[in-house]
Amino acid sequence: MPIRYIYSKERQHGRRHTPDSLHQLLAKNFAELGASEASLTRTILIKDRYFIGHRYRCGGMQAVVLAGTKEIEFYDETGKLLKSVSLEDAEKKQAA
Predict the structure, then answer these.
(1) 52 SS3 class
(2) By C-alpha distance, which of 88, 94, 96, 95 is closest to 72?
(3) Domain containing 15: what range?
(4) In 3-state terms, what secondary structure has residue 10?
(5) Within a domain: 54
(6) Count of CB atoms situated within 10 Å of the CB of 34
(7) In sequence order, which residues have a C-beta less than 8 Å from that of residue 93 and are 6 or more positions away?
(8) What CA–CA distance (Å, rounded) separates 22 from 64?
């Protein structure tokens, strides 16, 4: 049975971060939070055969971007929320 994808309205209208800009945003925030490694590992999140988002790991920390949301949530090794970053705010700063 094929995997079905749920796309947000932002993706349908072409407003979204490119992979490079998202990678830069993630790397910058991981570094600010003191991540010990520079490499990012991405995992695709699927629930009940539906795409629900991405998880990025850097050192012992992780960031989660859920489909249809406009935030990246950063967590420490124990799962404690450290920081939330608005993709809309980051996009505005990037455009300026």
Answers:
(1) strand
(2) 88
(3) 9-95
(4) helix
(5) yes
(6) 10
(7) none
(8) 12
Taking the C-alpha atoms of residue 13 and residue 86, their distance in angstroms, rounded to an integer, is 18
pTM for this entry: 0.75
Total H helices, total E strands in the chain: 3, 5
Q: Is residue 48 part of a domain?
A: yes
Residue 69 lies inside a defined structural domain of this protein: yes
- Overall domain count for the chain: 1
Pull the structure tokens for residue 19.
Answer: 């992979």
Positions of the chain with pLDDT lower than 50, given as ranges: 1-15
The one-letter code for the residue type at 16 is: R
Q: How is residue 36 written in tokens?
A: 């010990």
Contact between residue 72 and residue 85 where contact means Cβ atoms under 8 Å apart: yes
Coil/strand/helix, residue 16:
coil
